[in-house]
Amino acid sequence: MRHDMSPAAQALTDYMSELSETAYCAGWMDGLEFALWQVVTEGPRQYGCLVITQKQVSELRMLSDICGGWIVFDDRTEETFISLDAWQRLYNDHINNVRCTINNEI
Fold this sequence. Notes:
Shape: globular
Order of helices and strands: HHEEHEEH
């Protein structure tokens, strides 16, 4: 929950939400945490109506490094901070599940 976050994690939450709002007019677009991590790891790209720049990628990376984690949306706890180790496991599981779904559809 937002009130349990450090100021650094709150800054990351706010920035991620700002990007979501710009891209989709939604405070937290479904899958935002995965889409933004993809740009952190793979570089700038189009996200909705927003072309994410290298400057924005660098800002996401810096905020993540400062707080030592990433923000995920949970239906129960809403915006939630998790450690980078936990996030990377969750992200890898997500990517593997997406690949399995795509491979099963082909």
